[in-house]
UniProtKB/TrEMBL annotation, chain A:
Keyword terms of this UniProt record: FAD, Flavoprotein, Oxidoreductase
Cofactor: FAD
Protein's name according to its UniProt entry: Acyl-CoA dehydrogenase
GO terms for MF: flavin adenine dinucleotide binding; oxidoreductase activity, acting on the CH-CH group of donors
InterPro entries per record: Acyl-CoA_Oxase/DH_mid-dom, Acyl-CoA_Oxase/DH_mid-dom_sf, AcylCo_DH-like_C, AcylCo_DH/oxidase_C, AcylCoA_DH/ox_N, AcylCoA_DH/ox_N_sf, AcylCoA_DH/oxidase_NM_dom_sf, Mycobact_Acyl-CoA_DH
Organism from which the protein derives: Aeromicrobium erythreum
Every Acyl-CoA dehydrogenase/oxidase C-terminal domain range: 232-382
UniProtKB/TrEMBL annotation, chain B:
Residue stretches making up the Acyl-CoA dehydrogenase/oxidase N-terminal domain: 7-117
GO molecular function, one term: flavin adenine dinucleotide binding
Gene3D superfamilies linked to this entry: Acyl-CoA dehydrogenase/oxidase, N-terminal domain, Butyryl-CoA Dehydrogenase, subunit A, domain 2, Butyryl-CoA Dehydrogenase, subunit A, domain 3
InterPro entries from the UniProt entry: Acyl-CoA_Oxase/DH_mid-dom_sf, AcylCo_DH-like_C, AcylCo_DH/oxidase_C, AcylCoA_DH/ox_N, AcylCoA_DH/ox_N_sf, AcylCoA_DH/oxidase_NM_dom_sf
Keywords, alphabetical: FAD, Flavoprotein, Oxidoreductase
One Pfam family of this chain: Acyl-CoA_dh_N
Name of the protein this chain belongs to: Acyl-CoA dehydrogenase
Acyl-CoA dehydrogenase/oxidase C-terminal domain sequence ranges: 227-340
PANTHER family: ACYL-COA DEHYDROGENASE (PTHR43884), ACYL-COA DEHYDROGENASE FADE28 (PTHR43884:SF20)
UniProt cofactor(s): FAD
């Protein structure tokens, strides 16, 4: 056993740190550091800078722009990106649809979509959840009926994050309503969001922001060649995708950065307030424990099998993320009420955004497999209950 | 970075596990052994020595086996798995101070015998009331004051005692049979042994240089002890969690096994989270001790605090999820909770370590575990 990074990994970390802190525009990193909303252009610009350097999709197969990195190197890449306040490559592209197309798509589909997906020339949206199919995803009802060379899609998706920016949407659709099990008869279909019959409607959330959408399909005609893999095998691809999604959902780096920033904002208050000091120290320790668990997981997942503790990362990672947003609201105190204040306000930015962000991050324990689903996974697959 | 055991370390773990699972094959066996003094099995102690476990932390030239913190942690974790009551922690604490501070003669005299299992040491460091004071008269030193609780203090063949000197803190060797030493032993709630040790002008031999402040050496020795205790706790938590999980699968209520109730399985899942986070932090602290001992005191604090939280969580829930059977002395799980509680309050509990970490929380931006 040893603690230190190997010389090679330490050099790799330095290389990542230098790249992220010098090649991504300061204005974009400042936006992230101040916890303000990024524009679509800022996200696209960052991903294109990363992609030009071969750093946007390291988890993909090498022939499609991936890197033959170890799990630890991938972890370092991700952590350094967060610590440098660099927006991560769009998850829908880089972690979700890209790997699925690379693993299961035909050669034509790969060539058509993968380079554009890596470079964020196509902004992907995710069309999985439906009003009656959230954690119970297999209950989805959106139907794709085959007519000649086309599928005709009818139904509704919801919680489509940043769908207002989407160029294309990857969906799970029911292609065989008579399949004996509900997991069978589902296909993975790529749909151009400019198709006639497709509409996107914003959902306003409790933080006042517009981050998620409903997507409606009314007789949307989709070329059959947009099917990924085989018809009725979509559930397998979705499981593959969701497995990838869980990797990196414990944003230790960014939560650490937030907590460090909170200490700076609090300034002398921490030294004079033992309750606050122990709260911060307690959070630091929990984050340390989580980071070390993440390191154990990456250091031991070299053989391709997921480490059993990886479910801990999503569960605890989002809890701590939420705890830090809560700390900000409490630090702001009465100033946290000023979320609607304009530029003439004397309330600092961080305090004004604290409550909307606290409310917004209630989502973290719901998305990506709710934390109840994570507990179920731990109980069933790890503890055998 | 590497968190796996090498083949020698795996062999050590298997050997210690094999020995201890025979010595403590059931709750009943352990209860029998802890009922009568000295509260542990002298035979098992000798067998641990024969296996080399007691000499692991010490240099070969002193009579030890020159292993490191990882090996010590492996033994500690196995001790925790069966709640072995042998005074292994005392060997790390008191033996470590002899190794760090002692002269060549002192090391040669003490360490070899400790490694052979021929000498049980105890560290008397906890003052109850005024600190024990060391007084010099020429080259002769005497101690006065009371230490309590001194773990395994009544059985110890040699006491290592911290005392106040003009220089700060000094560490002394005391023969417990000498005049002016009075020991009153008793049982602790976890089946262990402790003692009140009163010194009244008792003859003491300085360990190393009595005119230097030994605070740093004592802090490092305690850090080593905290980390080893952390591993003991991790071993105990692992077994407590597994015992609870098995119970949930087999115990029927309302005609169905308990694991059909989601409220219970979710709580078990949370116990797993606590156990894994504690394991990660304690393992890290062991590696800090191995690679960067100058950071070990802080790392040990962080580990001990995580262990405190996890130990309380797992201990309390293990009993609750068992229901009434968890309260009985015949059943194992309550003993695990008792031991985890004792570990929490040995060498600084969660609150104490949190307070220490809180006092330095503004000294850094982010905590970087790999430097």
């Amino acid at each position: 056993m040893k603690l230190r990074l190997s010389e090679e990994d330490a050099a790799f970390r330095e290389e990542m740190r230098t790249f992220f802190t010098t090649q991504v525009p300061q204005s974009i990193r400042d936006t992230v550091a101040a916890r303000r909303e990024l524009t679509k252009d800022q996200i696209v610009e960052t991903q294109q800078i990363l992609n030009a350097a071969g750093l946007a999709v390291p988890n993909w197969p090498v022939e499609w722009g991936g890197k033959d990195w170890t799990p630890l190197q991938r972890h370092i890449w991700h952590e350094e990106m967060q610590l440098a306040s660099v927006p991560a490559p769009l998850a829908f592209n880089a972690s979700m649809v890209g790997p699925v197309i690379a693993a299961f798509g035909s050669q034509e589909v790969k060539e058509r979509f993968l380079p554009a997906t890596a470079n964020l020339d196509i902004w992907w949206s995710q069309g999985f959840s439906e009003p009656d199919a959230g954690s119970d995803l297999a209950s989805l009802r959106t139907v794709a009926r085959r007519e000649g060379d086309e599928y005709v899609v009818n139904g509704q998706k919801t919680w489509t994050t940043l769908g207002q920016y989407g160029d294309w949407i990857f969906t799970l659709v029911r292609t065989d309503p008579d399949a004996p099990k509900k997991q069978q008869g589902i296909s993975f279909l790529l749909i151009d969001m400019t198709s006639p019959g497709l509409t996107v409607r914003p959902i306003e959330l409790i933080d006042g922001g517009h981050e998620v959408n409903e997507v409606f399909f009314e007789d949307v005609r989709v070329p059959a060649e947009n099917l990924v893999g085989e018809e009725n095998r979509g559930w397998d691809y979705a499981k593959f995708l969701l497995g990838n999604e869980r990797v990196g959902v414990a944003p230790v780096g960014s939560t650490k950065r937030w907590l460090a920033a909170a200490k700076e904002l609090a300034g002398d208050r921490i030294a004079g307030d033992p309750v606050l000091a122990t709260r911060v120290a307690g959070l630091e320790n929990e984050l340390l424990a989580l980071e070390l668990t993440a390191l154990r997981v990456v250091a031991h997942s070299a053989d391709g099998k997921p480490h059993p503790a990886s479910s801990v990362l999503k569960l605890r990672g989002t809890e701590l993320q939420q705890a830090v947003t809560e700390l900000y609201v409490d630090l702001a105190g009465p100033l946290s009420l000023a979320s609607g204040a304009g530029d003439g306000s004397g309330v600092p930015d961080w305090a004004r955004v604290s409550t909307p962000q606290y409310l917004n991050f209630r989502k973290a324990s719901i998305y990506g497999g709710s934390n109840e689903v994570q507990r179920q996974i731990i109980a069933k697959t790890i503890l055998g209950l | 970075m590497d968190f796996t055991l090498d083949s020698e370390q795996t062999a050590l773990r298997d050997a210690v596990r094999g020995l201890l699972s025979k010595s403590y094959d059931s709750t009943e066996t352990r209860r029998e052994i802890t009922k009568t003094d000295p509260g542990f099995s002298e035979k098992t102690w000798t067998q641990l020595a024969e296996l080399g476990a007691l000499g692991l932390p010490f240099a070969e030239e002193d009579g030890g086996f020159g292993a490191g913190p990882v090996e010590v942690s492996i033994v500690a974790e196995e001790i925790g798995r069966v709640l072995a009551p042998e005074p292994y922690l005392e060997t790390i604490l008191a033996g470590g101070l002899v190794a760090d501070l002692g002269s060549a003669e002192q090391r040669a005299d003490v360490i070899g015998r400790v490694a052979e299992g021929a000498l049980v040491l105890s560290l008397a460091h906890h003052d109850i009331g005024d600190a024990v004071v060391a007084t010099a008269s020429g080259d002769t030193w005497t101690l006065s004051g009371v230490k309590e609780p001194v773990l395994h203090g009544a059985r110890a063949d040699l006491l290592v005692v911290t005392a106040r000197t003009d220089a700060g803190v000094g560490v002394f060797l005391v023969d417990p049979s000498a005049d002016g030493v009075e020991r009153t032993g008793y049982r602790t709630h976890d089946g262990g042994r402790a003692a009140r040790v009163a010194f009244d002008g008792a003859a003491a031999t300085p360990l190393g240089d009595p005119t230097a402040d030994a605070s740093d050496a004592v802090a490092l020795a305690k850090a080593r002890g905290q980390i080893a205790l952390g591993h003991e706790a991790v071993g105990a938590m692992d077994v407590a969690l597994r015992t609870t999980t098995e119970y949930l699968k087999t115990r029927k209520q309302f005609g169905v096994p308990l694991n059909t109730f989601q409220a219970l399985t979710f709580r078990a899942a949370d116990l797993y989270v606590s156990a894994e986070l504690a394991r990660s932090t304690v393992t890290w602290a062991t590696l800090v001790l191995q690679d960067e001992p100058e950071r070990a005191v802080e790392a040990a604090s962080r580990a001990k605090m995580q262990v405190s939280r996890a130990g309380r969580h797992i201990g309390q829930e293990a009993i609750q999820l068992h229901g009434g059977i968890g309260m009985t002395a015949e059943y194992s799980v309550g003993h695990y909770t008792s031991r985890l509680t004792a570990i929490d309050h040995t060498l600084g509990d969660g609150s104490e370590h949190l307070a220490r970490l809180a006092s330095t929380v503004t000294d850094h931006g982010v905590v970087d575990p790999i430097g």
